């Protein structure tokens, strides 16, 4: 097994984060960055695109 540790960029501030059990907030670099990301989801700044079904499609199971 290799001793190299994967390093990823924090999704919020792009700081390098070591991907290992000791990295408590991974993939984020800190609790602050994790909470900023959560706040973006909570205020609906981030959204997962979806296509709404019409009532007739939902009843047919399509």
TrEMBL record:
Superkingdom of source: Bacteria
Binding site for Zn(2+): 10, 13, 29, 33
Keyword Transmembrane helix: no
InterPro entries for the chain: DNA_gyrase_inhibitor_YacG, Znf_NHR/GATA
Cofactor binding comment, as recorded: Binds 1 zinc ion.
UniProt-listed Pfam families: YacG
Record keyword Metal-binding present: yes
Named cofactor requirement(s): Zn(2+)
Gene3D superfamilies, sorted: Erythroid Transcription Factor GATA-1, subunit A
Entry-linked SUPFAM superfamilies: Glucocorticoid receptor-like (DNA-binding domain)
Keywords: Metal-binding, Zinc
Family statement drawn from the similarity comment of this UniProt entry: Belongs to the DNA gyrase inhibitor YacG family.
Function: Inhibits all the catalytic activities of DNA gyrase by preventing its interaction with DNA. Acts by binding directly to the C-terminal domain of GyrB, which probably disrupts DNA binding by the gyrase.
Subunit structure: Interacts with GyrB.
Protein name in the entry: DNA gyrase inhibitor YacG
Organism: Chromobacterium aquaticum
Gene: yacG
């Amino acid at each position: 097994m290799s001793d190299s540790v994967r390093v990823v960029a924090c999704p919020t501030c792009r700081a390098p984060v070591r991907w290992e059990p000791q990295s408590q907030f991974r993939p984020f670099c800190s609790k602050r960055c994790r909470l900023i990301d959560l706040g973006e989801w909570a205020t609906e700044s981030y959204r997962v695109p979806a296509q709404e079904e019409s009532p007739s499609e939902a009843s047919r199971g399509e």
